[in-house]
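Homework help board

Subject: predicted structure for assignment chain

Our instructor gave us this sequence and asked us to write out the predicted structure in token form, then describe one feature. I got the tokens but I'm not sure how to describe them. Can anyone check?
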Amino acid sequence: MKKTRFSTEVMVVTAFMTALSVVLSKLISINISFLRIGFGFLPIAILAILYGPWIAALGYGLADLIGAWLLPTGTFFPGFTVSAVLTGLIFGFVLYNKEVTITRALIASALVCLGVNLILNTFWLTFIIGKGFKVLLASRAVKEIVAIPVMALLIVAMDRSVIKAVRNRSTN
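My token output:
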């Protein structure tokens, strides 16, 4: 599906997916102490598949800023916005204009979960809560390793249903 970069449809879908990401991250996430399980990545994966890395990065960056402003769940730290932008870029570079297979979704999920969520976000947390990197890394590793296949399966399921429906609507 070829779209002009700033068409009305792209802007509307990006705004909707950004808002949906805020809702899924802030209101429909599971919070346990320092562990948060959210689904805000799903709308961003949809943006990445449909429109590429730059739109997905913009959407997730805005979702992080809007979520921090409207529904704060702690101290705002701009490093997490950087992580959100990187997540959108990774999803876009791995998934855009390519068939979304389970292998490709696993690669994108592993890069996000291990590179961004585990390494980078743990590094940001050391600034906020003052615990050592290795202590936080160990406590967060299991959650991120378990999240990889879950995230990948959800991305593939979204591609098989939502993305295919959007693409079919655009060709008719």
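Reply (TA_rk): Your tokens look well-formed. For the description, you could write something like this. The chain has six helices and two strands. That's the kind of observation they're looking for.
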